[in-house]
Amino acid sequence: MENKKIKNATPTEYKGVTYRSGLEAECAKIFEENGVNVQYEPFKLTILPSFKYYGESIYPITYTPDFVGEGFIVECKGFPNDNWHDKRKWIMNYLLKDRPNLRFYEVHTVTQLRTLLKSIKTGLKEEWRPVVGFGDLYEVSNLGEVRSLQFHGKKRTKMMVQSTNKLGYKFVKLRDWHHQIVGTFPVHRLVAQAFIPNLEDKPQVDHIDTNPSNNVVTNLKWVTPRENQNNPLTLNRLQNSLVEYNKSEAHRKVVQQTQGHSVLQYDRHGKLLGEFPSMNEAAAALGTTACCIKRVCDGVRHYHKNWVFKYKSSMESPQVQKIRKLIPSLPEKDIPIGNKLLEARDWEELQNLVSSAIVKIEKANDKGSDKYANIDIGSLYDLQAAIPDTYNI
């Protein structure tokens, strides 16, 4: 397709449609991603009809819109030709008189189109305000965009590139060398600080529609942590996700691998109180949850409701498996605590056993006894250092 509208443009195909330029193809993709229904070059408008001038035929001025949606026209211009600026005025004048239901927009980059779509969807006109804490270096808009006003130390405006983390939140890197401030800042907080009064000094910003990438000011509000968690849409989404997960094959396998094992119930003094064929049955009998019992069995918690739970089967928790990997190089049989190291069920128990062994060996050595002369006490110190400082892991 010959392109007379844009200089240096390369026709690009996207989903079976050949667009006049790569920018137009990218714009078509963005319209699709945002669920905006548009048509590509659906019609041609006659801006100025042909006429005769002293017998000479003057050709008409026509215009074929790039994308036409409900109530708007979007013209994509990467490198407009020489007469485009004058022609644009004719187009806007024509639309104002003959097609008032169509509003004309012009974009030169993909970023501009994304911002334009936010404006079309929300009905907001983009407004810029200084980023709080950065003086006249950066500005943030009510549509969630951030721009630098002194790019590389020069007074010129440049849109800032935003990164997205795995949860969908947008971040932007800001610098103020004069005040030695360099950091990555969440865009939704920058928007809220600039546009939304926080009279009650609430600490968090909530996305009303639960979409963390939608940082338009109308989608944000200051909240407390509890209000943030109680967003009705968030609760509904979490409930649906939990229901779907509970029905999944992955959840069934987890239940088989964990809650299907027999567990033993002890009091905090080590007295056996009961035995249950599964965590679910133990939870039902004791008026608690299988999740709480599993945490104790895995060593994440020391006890629950003054009860201690342990796996009866030979299957060990991930924490116990980590303990096993630390011990094989030590001569357990010759250590004062015998084989008890291998019986440790959590980090605290292992720490107590190792400390007890070290004390006994050091006392014997101080008395001149050679009872533990063949034991490298340094190995025990290494094991002690490898045990996590906190047991809640």
Could you describe the 3D structure shown?
Helix 1 (22-33) packs parallel to helix 3 and helix 11 (347-366) runs antiparallel to helix 12. The chain has a four-stranded mixed beta sheet, with helices on both faces. Strands 11-12-13-14 form a four-stranded antiparallel beta sheet, covered by helices on one side. A three-stranded antiparallel beta sheet has the order 15-16-17. The chain has twelve helices and 22 strands. It has helices at residues 22-33, 84-98, 110-122, 187-195, 225-229, 232-246, 249-259, 279-286, 290-297, 318-326, 347-366, 377-386, and strands at residues 12-14, 17-19, 39-40, 45-48, 51-53, 56-58, 61-63, 67-69, 72-76, 103-107, 128-130, 138-141, 146-148, 158-159, 163-164, 170-176, 181-186, 204-207, 220-223, 263-267, 272-276, 307-311. The protein has 393 residues and is of the alpha+beta class. It folds into four domains: 12-122, Trna Endonuclease, Chain: A, domain 1, CATH 3.40.1350; 128-234, Homing Intron 3 (I-Ppo) Encoded Endonuclease, Chain A (Alpha-Beta Complex); 249-311, Arc Repressor Mutant, subunit A; 318-386, no CATH class. Mean pLDDT is 81; it is low at 1-5.
Write the layout of secondary structure elements.
Layout: E1 12-14, E2 17-19, H1 22-33, E3 39-40, E4 45-48, E5 51-53, E6 56-58, E7 61-63, E8 67-69, E9 72-76, H2 84-98, E10 103-107, H3 110-122, E11 128-130, E12 138-141, E13 146-148, E14 158-159, E15 163-164, E16 170-176, E17 181-186, H4 187-195, E18 204-207, E19 220-223, H5 225-229, H6 232-246, H7 249-259, E20 263-267, E21 272-276, H8 279-286, H9 290-297, E22 307-311, H10 318-326, H11 347-366, H12 377-386
Parallel strand pairs: 9-10
Antiparallel strand pairs: 1-2, 3-8, 4-7, 5-6, 8-9, 11-12, 12-13, 13-14, 15-16, 16-17, 18-19, 20-21, 20-22
